[in-house]
């Protein structure tokens, strides 16, 4: 299969995005909790939805990561959204519809979706 | 978990937590032998004998503060309920290999599910890790 110029552009964009993630050049970070409880509750769909939205937006400064169980299994699937310089917001009971709203309003627009949020700020462990 | 691709996503997260930089997943559907074999291998920090004996115990976890500790027990249960088994080979600093087998024709065998999506999300969220996936169909 011969590569076209457009193909090369797409490869370049993809690598740029990956490089930005590795070098920590980000504006927003989305972390989806992927413990056993989260996965069983539908976290993969949530993760896929965020991934697709990021790809569609063309953004190269949004990090999408996963972590283990957040310790609140009954409210899974959960995701934490953090905009640079602002406290993280934990969203709970997620589905694809809520993910789209959170992405549009909070990740892109900077407005926290309070109706889906459980907490704001980092936890303190003792 | 509704299907095996979700179990595999869960087990892969264990490998990632074990600092693996390479995770290989092989699925063999052998219709002649009536068996589905899933093998996941990583080059993470592995487990010593003591830990390997405990990991199939429900609620055992190496992440005490925030972890359920049911990932491997649930996969083992899924395998056993469909006439199969689960084995673990691992050594400290030697990586881990988990092999789960299922009787293909068993009515209780979970479907494989969307492995493409599982691999897509793993690769997208962990670009520094090499994931390989092979599916083999044997008659």
Keywords:
heterodimer, A: 126 residues, alpha+beta, Glutaredoxin, five-stranded mixed β-sheet, B: 139 residues, Heat Shock Protein 90, 4 helices, 5 strands, globular
| Major beta sheet, strand line-up of chain A | 2-1-3-4-5
The CATH topology of chain A comes to: Glutaredoxin
Shape annotation of chain A: globular
Radius of gyration of chain B: 14 Å
N to C succession of SSEs of chain A? HEHHEEEHE
Descriptive report:
The complex is a heterodimer of chains A (126) and B (139). Chain A has 126 residues and is α+β, with helices and mostly antiparallel strands. Chain A has one domain (26-120): Glutaredoxin (3-Layer(aba) Sandwich), CATH 3.40.30.10. Chain A is built from four helices and five strands. Chain A has a five-stranded mixed sheet with strand order 2-1-3-4-5, covered by helices on one side. In chain A, helix 3 crosses helix 4 (96-108). Chain A starts with a helix and ends in a 6-residue tail after the last strand. Chain B is α+β, with helices and mostly antiparallel strands and 139 residues long. Chain B has one domain: Histidine kinase-like ATPase, C-terminal domain (Heat Shock Protein 90). In chain B, 30% of the residues lie in helices and 29% in strands. Chain B has a five-stranded mixed sheet, with helices on one face. In chain B, strand 3 and strand 4 form a beta hairpin. In chain B, helix 1 (4-17) runs antiparallel to helix 3 and helix 1 packs parallel to helix 4. The longest helix of chain B is centred in the first third of the chain and has 14 residues, at 4-17. Chain B is globular.
